Amino acid sequence: MAMGIGEILSQLGSIAASLMFVYAMYEQFCPSDLRKFVENYKHKFTDLMSPYIQITFNESSGERLKQSETYTIIQTYLGANSSKRAKRLEAEVVEDSQSPLVLSMDDNEEIEDEFNGVKVWWSANSKAPRRKASSGRSFDVVRCFTLTFHKRHRDLITSSYIQHVLEQGKAIIFKNRRLKLYTNNGGCWWMSGWSHTNFAHPARFETLAMEPEKKEEIINDLVKFKKGKEYYAKVGKAWKRGYLLYGPPGTGKSTMISAIANFMNYDVYDLELTTVKDNNELKTLLIETSSKSVIVIEDIDCSLELTGQRKKKKEKDHTDKNENKEKTDKKSEEEDEDDDNDDEEEEEKRKSNVTLSGLLNSIDGIWSSCGGERIIIFTTNFVDKLDPALIRRGRMDKHIEMSYCRYQAFKVLAKNYLDVESHGDLFPIIEKLLGETNMSPADVAENLMPKSTTEDAESCLKNLIQYLEIAKEKEEEEAKKNGEKAQLVAGKDKQELAQNYRMNRWRRQVKNMRNFFGSC
Ligand SMILES: Nc1ncnc2c1ncn2[C@@H]1O[C@H](COP(=O)(O)OP(=O)(O)OP(=O)(O)O)[C@@H](O)[C@H]1O
């Protein structure tokens, strides 16, 4: 006999009501032990029937329920994917990030991901913590991500996919983080160690004025280094690179360091050697540096104790100076020496007890104790003053000369400062003058900068030409003076030589006469 729809619905309704009643009775009156037992078997039964596996990643872990790093990395990875796919998102402002607004999946939201053609599902949930935190932050609920996948992909997911998620998540965190500038000159003798601020120098390779081939060579070297993890491991070398930047003041050594840090997305450790007490403190500071960083020692020649070759060179300079003293005007020489002594005293005061060997040991030591991915950069205005041991290949792998501004470098500055790439009349004049004068990019840049809002590019270029002409004249005068001085010295030398020659000839004649009369 056929049942009417109304009858079916009323029967279904009464079954549902009975089930709900039974469930409510079970929840209320069933002893907790029995309930646990039932739950356990219920899970076992569903696990047996379900072809899916679930892995849960909790927000907090450990005794103190600390924020789990893995959870944060997964959250970042899913954030990048879910912001495009999920409908309910949670927003958070993270201070130390370049993109401070971070979006992640909201509770009970689910998204699908695909890896090597295999589909997986991630869901965000909350649950009660298994145990209470012993101290510190306490949680009413613990948030977690659940990864669901088919059991036939277990190996792929557990070995490769999770690895992929962690790598991608870390890469996103690394890309978005704010760079830090660490310094060790806290200013107080009792405060050793690094302090940091955000690193926000705008220098980029695109705005760095130097010969394009040289720039490209450096960029290629950096790219090779960045991708070189396996290579360095294969050849058994620490994953580090040393650069020596040398050249006159204002040629862009510090600017280059900032451009390198921005290009590599590395933190900068600006090591002020003169405030480091001794070799031990230096070692500690270097060990505390993190990987993916640039360690910088500026003006290395001024910071170190006089050792080895520098000592010898100084002694030689001193002897040379004494010899010159006899040849040049005594008064001006005394004035010069007074100035030199003042400079030396000042330099001596600034020096710490870090020795060259201490620096070499510390630098070599960090590579064996801290792993890699660090770039170390020394800068100097006087490359000849440096001990060869300090800058030998292997320690300073690449020696980069930062030179005076020539035409190609000027073009970059003109583009940066005036937004002009050519000027039919003025560019050729500037090209010629830059070839005849030694002017630093800093000076060229200063002269290119408009002095008022009404000054246009052409008048800035004309200012530069005027400045270059004056500089050229000065250089020529200087060269003339030096030439005259050299001639004077050479003239005095000639007179002395002639006098010596006459004396020797006279001595020889006397000696011959003595011999002659002696033999008679
Ligand atoms: N090659 C360059 N490209 C772009 N700008 C430069 C360059 N060289 C110098 N400048 C400009 O000049 C200023 C000074 O340059 P920087 O401090 O980098 O020179 P430096 O070689 O480190 O000088 P010092 O030896 O005195 O420390 C920079 O702020 C920058 O604006």
UniProtKB/TrEMBL annotation:
Q: Which residues lie in coiled coils?
A: none
State whether keyword Disulfide bond applies. no
Required co-factors: Mg(2+)
Is this entry keyworded Lyase?
no
Which residues belong to any copy of the AAA+ ATPase domain?
Answer: 239-406
Q: Where is there biased composition of kind Acidic residues?
A: 334-347
Keyword annotations for this protein, in alphabetical order, are: ATP-binding, Hydrolase, Magnesium, Nucleotide-binding
Pfam families per record = AAA, AAA_assoc, AAA_lid_At3g28540
User: Which protein family is named in the record?
Assistant: Belongs to the AAA ATPase family. BCS1 subfamily.
Q: What is this protein called?
A: P-loop nucleoside triphosphate hydrolase superfamily protein
Organism field:
Medicago truncatula
Name the gene for this chain: 11425334
